[in-house]
Amino acid sequence: MVTTKEPAAGVTAEAQPGTVVGGGVGVPLSFLLHELTIKTKNSRQIRPFLKFISSNSAFKLMDSDETQHFDMPFSVGLPSKISSMKKFLVTIVLSLSLLAKTMADEGMWLPLLLGPQVYNDMVKKGLKLTKEQLYNINKPSLKDAIIIFGGGCTGEIVSSQGLIFTNHHCGYNAIASASTVEKNYLKDGFYARNKSEEIPTTLSVQFLLRIDDVTKEVMDSLKGLSGAERLQKQGAVLAAINKRLSDAAQNIETRVSALFKGNQFLAFVYQRYTDVRLVGTPPESVGKFGGDTDNWEWPRHTGDFSVFRVYTSADGKPAKYTDNNVPMKPKWYLPVSLRPLKDGDFSMIWGYPGGTNRYESSYGIKLATDINNPTLVNLRDVRLKYMFDEMKKDPAVKLQLASSYAGIANYWKFFDGETKQLLK
After folding, report:
1. Mean pLDDT computed over 239-247
2. With contact defined as beta carbons under 8 Å apart, do 49 and 350 qualify?
């Protein structure tokens, strides 16, 4: 069940530094945040996503100075990975588990376009947040606690001091980069005992500020155009809007996305923070338990989590790394209940996964199964073979190539598995 509210201040609960505490079944923190993002082959645009799904566990990694207890629990489930990832969208997927019968209400909705019927249905299922608490550009809301982590993963702000939960594979490159053969955090894990031990990274995180509908502006500029001329003009118009709504001085970036096959255009405005530090990670034997054999499988049991913290300047603005920076004081963060959950509880996940081509033509499917996917799998076969041969020879090389190898292997299995399923 996910029912969060604006965090109350000054209410604390005891926990040891770095302790994982949870309610519900005794499972690792991997169940807190399932992978909600996939790198796209042909687009670097990323858009936020809301997903509702039933769940049975809640966890929080607490620092001794930021433990809190709240009346309302927050937890997330493990949705299966989405096939045919192509573009990143802002959507909501609603799923409900019933006791005797297995029934599901699900779909995709943009948060700013969430209609009263869908919202009222979610309330009936157990949602206790107002629409304004879900998404509001003028006041703090849940959107302020969910971030784009790194190149496209989802992260969650879970404390008043900028603590971030994300997946182990999302932090994989940062963990590997911080490691040496002598201090191999990828292999052995790492937990900072205090903030001074947190490790700087080259990661950044992005907070969604607002979503603007610019459809009319774009469509008006494309009237009377078609084909290559229309496409070229559209690119120029979107670039102009991106530039107009961005502000480099404040680290504000805008990306206009074409949705619904170019029938709607939304401008997603983000603010980027670049001082992100590694706080904790399990060893790879936990964080990547099952390896590529279990990857893309359901159910999957793995401790797929890592913990970071975002820092700001003393006045709360984005800033490059410096010892004088302070932990972020977020507009909103996710209080995590220690109470166990029960079957039928409502839960909500807001994150950044990809879109699905549910209405692909038979020609598009044939192109994927006969040409595109086999070609990608064969190329990755060659790359993985030669990388593996070199990684076996030298521990330092193994560490250096670990992140690239994992990324290539991830999509090797994706394309191979997608083809096999489509041909069944």
Report:
1. 98
2. yes
For 25, which DSSP code? S
What pLDDT does residue 209 have? 95
Whole-angstrom Cα distance, residue 163 to residue 329? Answer: 10
Task: Let me know: does 115 contact 9? Beta carbons within 8 Å.
Answer: no
- Distance between CA atoms of 205 and 273, rounded to whole angstroms? 5
- Nearest Cα residue to 50 out of 208, 161, 214: 208
Strand order across the beta sheet in which 49-52 lies = 92-93, 49-52, 348-351
Could you write out the DSSP letters of every residue in 212-225?
A: EE-HHHHHHHTTT-
**21 has a pLDDT exceeding 70:** no
pLDDT of residue 358: 65
Strand duo 205-213 + 252-259: pairing? unpaired
CA-nearest of 48, 245, 74 to 148 is: 48
The whole-angstrom separation of Cα 170 and Cα 44 is 16
Can you tell me the distance from the alpha carbon of 118 to that of 348, in angstroms, rounded to the nearest whole number? 14
The yes-or-no verdict on residue 421 having pLDDT over 80 is yes
Residue 356: the pLDDT is: 62
Task: Determine the straight-line distance between the first and last CA of the chain, rounded to whole angstroms.
Answer: 35
Mean pLDDT for 97-122 is: 67
Widest Cα–Cα separation across the chain: 66
Burial 14-44 (b: 16+ CB within 10 A, else e): ebeebebbbbbeeebbbbbbbbbbbbbeeee
Residues 6+ apart with CB under 8 A from 59: 20, 21, 22, 23, 29, 31, 32, 75, 336
Write phi, then psi, for 230 (nearest 5 degrees): -65, -45
Confidence of residue 355 (pLDDT cuts 50, 70, 90): low
- Residue 106 has what pLDDT? 64
Look up residue 371 and give its DSSP letter.
Answer: I
Q: Which residues pair with 61 in a beta bridge?
A: 20
Cβ atoms within 10 A of the Cβ of 242, count? Answer: 16
